Amino acid sequence: KFVPGIYLILARWPTFLGYVAEQLGPKLKNEKVLRRCEIIADKIFDASEEIMEHIETSNHVLPVDNSQKTNILSAISTYRQTSPQMVGFGSLLLSALPSFKN
User: Fold this and answer.
1) Could you report how far apart the first and last alpha carbons of the chain are, in Å?
2) DSSP string for the chain
């Protein structure tokens, strides 16, 4: 099962992680928050196309079978969804816990 990196980092402080889960967890189910995270992912994807223009990949044969390809695409899809959510989560942490602002 996938565990976002920020959770693994915050797990060093279990009391704080519990507090954060209680206070901010519901916000990550909020459609408006999830949509904004999706917009972040779309912007990153669009920017990456510009980078890929300069990388030659057409002559490469991937060393994976169809089953592996399906699993790899699934993992990338999960990562594409959860990484922007973690950006959103980090932003929520900063805005919801003012004492943590620099």
Assistant:
1) 33
2) ----HHHHHHTTSHHHHHHHHHHHGGGGG-HHHHHHHHHHHHHHHHHHHHHHTTS--TT---S--HHHHHHHHHHHHHHHHHHHHHHHHHHHHHHH-GGG--
The reply to whether the predicted model has a pTM over 0.70 is: no
- Rounded Cα distance, 65 and 96, in Å: 46
Per-residue pLDDT of the chain (102 residues; tens, 9 = 90+): 566 677 788 889 899 888 878 877 787 788 988 888 888 888 888 888 777 777 776 777 778 888 998 998 888 888 777 777 777 777 777 776 656 555
Phi-psi region for residue 79, left (φ > 0), alpha (ψ -120 to 50) or beta? alpha
